[in-house]
Input
Amino acid sequence: MIAIVVSTLNNPWFVFLGQQAAKKASALGYETKLFDSQNNTSLESDHFDNIIVEGFSAILFNPTDADGSIANVKKAKAAGIPVFCMDREVNSSTVATSQVLSDSYSGAVDIGKYFVQQLHKKGNYVELLGLVGDNNTWARSKGFHSVVDNYPGLKMVAQQSADFDRNKAMDVMESILQAHPSIDGVFCGNDAMAMGAYQALVSDGLADKVKVFGFDGSDDVVAAIKAGKVCCTGMQFPKLIAETAATLADEYIKGKRDLPGKVQVAVELVTKNNVDDYIGYGKK
Output
């Protein structure tokens, strides 16, 4: 049996990640059980306790917190259950058997370059950050700023966390717009927040004036890029991430031990120029 522990099923990206992990593990001959941590490390801890008691063979794990989740992975390791992190990492190179991650930093560098072009090197912008305890949040922010901060004409007027959540992003964006009604762009750490920000811009009649940039490659943002509502996204490949983690778990269960500690999956820039090559969460 393989356990699949996902940070939240309130985000379609993680629903898809969990489903793909379960599908691949089933295809490899394992029974699977999916656990939803609801972005709560103590609930995640309860899941790990239950998984250990039930004697699962491996855990495909999407952590809630890079630091806060380490204790749970340690607990599983001590019980002899290997853990394979998917999409999010824990800040330890010794507890998880392997970590399969998107190259968020490089993906955000590409978005930063496109952002600079689209805003013609000048204007005011807003950044919506994801969960502050997730390394992807900071990898994307740092990658983006490594490019954009070189252009003095581009000024960040607000930077706020919206926890990777669509509704929260809409609320945060609405309050930012009250303080800063004159902005030219919004960089969002994921697509759920990009859609929330876009909704807030529509409500304020600013959707045609402000360019929105996302990250993930979700169905609705791919459609929004086609419709000219969102500027671009960074396409992650959750199917590949999930399948790689499940395959590594299978190899470990069958006795292989020289597995890579970290596997990085490239992120691709999706814009109106190439959007027809993509579908939600992948290439056509």
Observations:
- The CA atoms of residues 48 and 155 lie 44 Å apart.
